Amino acid sequence: MDETLATRLRTAFNARDINDLRSILAEGATWGEDPTSEQFCHDRNDIIRHLKQLLDEGLNPTIVQTTTGPSGIAAQLEVEWPDPATARPDRTSFFQVYVVTEGLVTEIHGHDDEASALTAIS
Fold it and tell me: Tell me, what CATH number does 42's domain have?
């Protein structure tokens, strides 16, 4: 996998460039682990809507590192929660995997540690 898409993802995500983020997502991209849960995003528009909602609520995520592999991009995120009293302590630093097919992100999955994220992209 080419580093160009990883750099573009990190730059657009950290700049909150919604248009560029939308352009790297496949139309049928999904986000989440359980397709039956309320939080699961079923397509590109759903992903963008959910991300905007999280940002509007004051969540401040930053991609601090990306690693590429044959199946996609592993990203380490650091998150500042709007209210430290209600922050999820298990979610201040975590990993997401962006599965890439034909140059576009087709799936986004959360991972608790770097090893599982790296395995998912190899």
Answer: 3.10.450.50
